[in-house]
Amino acid sequence: MERDPRELGGAWQLSQRHTFIAPSGDLARYVERYWVVTWDYERPYRQLVAPLPNVHLTFRDGRAELHGPSSAHVHRELTGSGSVFGVAFRPGMFGPFLDGPVANLRDRVIDATTVFGPPLPDPVDVVSVERFLRAHLPVDDPAAENAARTVAMIAEDTGITTVDALARRRGTSVRGMQRLFAEYVGIGPKWVIRRYRLQEVTVRLAQGLEIDWAALAADLGYADQPHLSRDFRKIFGEPPTHYAQRYESSGK
Questions:
Q1: CA distance 160 to 155
Q2: What Pfam families does the record point to (predicted)?
Q3: Residues 33, 91, 244, CA angle at the centre, nearest 5°?
Q4: Is the pTM of this model over 0.90?
């Protein structure tokens, strides 16, 4: 398939605008950020979305949806003019809002009213959405905080490449770590580790750095380069060398 030239060199930014807003202090334990995306396309654009271990609450065209953690990339078609307002919950901190494990939301999109009930915020802006969230705050859950701190540790510590190492750092067993992630994160600790380590690969590619793929695969805990490339393609929708083309004419 011929590549859409709007994917290259940051050309998509001519038709999209992304805004990120920090939550108020009292909601920061649950919410990582608010985000707003607007777009205007004369021709439909197939937007690739790479997953992270967040649950998202989105508002668009009078509807509210909950997007559970995705195990792989997805594509969304953007056409004409439109916008969406999103709430990205801290990984691990959406569990207290649910009556079951976050793993039940994995790779699913559901009507948000099944969790929060009506009415929805109106208008959809930071003030009204924060009022809406405050009206539905759950009771404190120390296990959720533990899950959130564990994901933050994975994101920050590039030396964590295995679940065994993570479990030792957190003073628990591998089985205990897996149970914690199923209940509160919605996707396994091995996936989360690989996701954040592969994010570091995208940074190197964007910077145009030379990469010793065999050495990098070993550093990231992979048996070999093909296994790294397989996971990279599942997350980012294309092999690393193809992904790097996105930045070749962007000056980055």
A1: 9
A2: DUF6597, HTH_18
A3: 75
A4: yes
What residue type is 93 in one-letter code? M
Residue located via tokens 């915020």: 121
Tokens encoding 118: 């009506």
Contact call for residues 40 and 81 (beta carbons, < 8 A): yes
**Domains of the chain with CATH codes:** 5-247 (1.10.10.60)
- Structure token pair of residue 17: 């605008």
Helix axes 189-206, 225-236, angle to 10 degrees: 90
- The whole-angstrom separation of Cα 53 and Cα 51 is 7
List helix spans (H) across the chain: 113-116, 126-134, 142-156, 163-170, 174-184, 189-206, 213-219, 225-236, 240-244
Q: In the numeric block, which tokens belong to residue 3?
A: 């590549």
- Whole-number Cα distances in Å, 168 to 37, 152, 163, 165, 232: 40, 16, 9, 5, 26
pLDDT one-digit tens code per residue, 21-57: 999 999 999 999 999 999 999 889 988 899 999 999 9
Q: Identify the CA nearest to 197 among candidates 149, 146, 147, 236.
A: 236
Count how many Cα atoms sit within 13 Å of the Cα of residue 89 in the half-sphere of its side chain: 27
As given in the structure block, the two tokens for residue 211 are 């990469």
